[in-house]
UniProtKB/TrEMBL annotation:
<feature type="domain" description="Glycosyl transferase family 1">
    <location>
        <begin position="212"/>
        <end position="359"/>
    </location>
</feature>
<dbReference type="Pfam" id="PF00534">
    <property type="entry name" value="Glycos_transf_1"/>
</dbReference>
<dbReference type="InterPro" id="IPR001296">
    <property type="entry name" value="Glyco_trans_1"/>
</dbReference>
<dbReference type="GO" id="GO:0016757">
    <property type="term" value="F:glycosyltransferase activity"/>
</dbReference>
<protein>
    <recommendedName>
        <fullName>Glycosyl transferase family 1 domain-containing protein</fullName>
    </recommendedName>
</protein>
Length: 443
């Protein structure tokens, strides 16, 4: 059996790219030939369909015409142009390998490229390829897609987002409810997963160089914000909490942290951000806010990648987890939460905002985190929570930092829960059920 996993892009550090690589690995572990297919392949091997890349100019023009303003076009011209684009994508699909199953990631749910959805669906139908829709985000969740400019784009959204005759997979139960309410469609929840059997990330002779690269002492405290730098990650809440920790750290001089760092008069606290900056204006907001709060940010994207490049002294994201003391994850909104799984695999304590999916699907499983609550307000370009939540979080952080037994118990419990509910083995069982019961395939 030949299976293709298709998306606009792969080989990046976004959630969809990461999950596609995990699904590919698990499907291959099941002895199924599996390929990645995308408009932009990044660092991944696979088959490239340039017309569906996020950066394709025609795609972006048509997206503006579909959801912002037709301007000089009328609906007939829009229809002609989008149908021509559908045909071009359709023809490009003929150049890829023969497939039995196409697992379609976000193309049937996030309306970035409506023509791609039509082309992929028609191509699979015409060539007897079974489809499974894997939906990480839905168009109706984004303000940009809420006002289609013409009836033809409304028809496409109704018919192909998602199609009504394919099995659907979502990544959380809130999305499952939304899809049922909006479109009357049933779906299977398959959450994000992580490889809990891989070698543990540890400080070694290479990643210890990060200290010197960032001008950090080995007794300084490192809070790691491992996400991309975008507003919904609410990194200002991490700054608020680190500021409180820094103010009170002098009370703990001569004490030793759970991982062996001795606090001295010279110990400093840093918030390290190795993730890609996708909103430059937000970076400036964070820099200014951190300066106001006397928190030192270390923007480390220039020395970070998905894998090590030792000759260039570039470190993997996992290297940053290895040297961190605490992980910050104050996101306001997540489809699931890859960084949460990474944090619990790294066996580091986690500070987080309880975003809706965490609260509904993850927290009830029993994870122990330092919580910033689940209520936030947005004003003047920043998120904020009640100051009492920040103070409580600071106090809990200190209790964990300076209690080896407590820290060890929490991180081990979280690791075991993660392995139980979000491992590759769990994904394997769910994929087998999906292929057999929903797609009616012999696996």
């Amino acid at each position: 059996m030949e299976i293709g996993l298709v998306h606009y892009r792969v080989g990046e550090t976004d959630g969809v790219s990461l999950e596609m690589v995990k699904w590919k690995q698990v499907l291959r572990n099941m002895h199924l030939k599996t390929y990645l297919i995308a408009g932009d392949m990044g660092t991944s091997p696979g088959f490239k369909i340039p017309y569906i890349a996020y950066t394709d100019k025609r795609s972006n023009v048509l997206k503006q015409k579909a959801f912002v303003n037709l301007n000089s076009w009328d609906e007939a011209y829009f229809k002609k142009e989008i149908n021509k684009y559908v045909e071009d994508i359709y023809n490009q699909l003929y150049e890829m390998m023969d497939l039995d199953v196409m697992i379609v990631n976000n193309i049937f749910s996030l309306a970035h490229n409506p023509a791609a959805a039509v082309a992929v669906y028609r191509f699979c139908k015409d060539n007897g390829i079974k489809m499974i829709g894997h939906h990480h985000d839905f168009y109706w969740e984004r303000d940009f897609y809420k006002n289609p400019t013409n009836d033809y784009i409304k028809e496409i959204l109704e018919e192909y987002f998602p199609p009504r005759d394919i099995p659907n997979v979502v990544i959380n139960s809130l999305a499952q409810e939304e899809l049922k309410n909006k479109k009357g469609l049933d779906s299977v929840v398959i959450p994000n997963v992580f490889d809990f059997n891989q070698k543990q990330w540890e400080i070694d002779d290479y990643n210890i160089k990060i200290y010197d690269k960032l001008n950090i002492s080995q007794n300084d405290l490192i809070f790691l914000q491992a996400t991309r730098i975008v507003r919904r990650k609410a990194i200002e809440l991490a700054i608020d909490t680190v500021a409180e920790v820094k103010k009170d750290l002098k009370k703990y001089i001569e004490k030793t942290t759970f991982n062996g760092k001795k606090i001295t008069q010279d110990t400093n606290v840093f918030l390290v951000l190795p993730g890609l900056s996708e909103e430059s204006d937000y970076v400036e907001v964070l820099k200014e806010y951190a300066s106001q709060k006397d928190v030192e940010l270390k923007l480390a994207f220039s020395i970070s990648d998905d894998i090590r490049h030792e000759e260039e002294e570039i470190f993997s994201l996992w290297d940053f987890y290895a040297i961190a003391d605490f992980i910050t994850y104050p996101s306001i909104l997540e489809g699931f939460g890859n960084q949460f799984l990474e944090a619990i695999f790294s066996k580091k304590p986690v500070l987080m905002f309880e975003y809706p999916v965490y609260k509904k699907d993850i927290a009830p499983l029993g994870f122990e985190v330092v919580s910033l609550g689940s209520k936030a307000e947005y004003e003047r370009g920043r998120y904020r929570v009640n100051q009492n939540e920040i103070i409580k979080a600071k106090e809990e952080i200190f209790k964990i930092l300076f209690d080896t037994q407590r820290a060890s118990k929490i991180v081990q419990k979280n690791f075991e829960l993660g392995k139980k509910y979000f491992s590759y083995e769990t994904l394997g069982k769910k994929l087998k059920n999906l292929l057999v019961e929903k797609a009616h395939l012999g696996v």
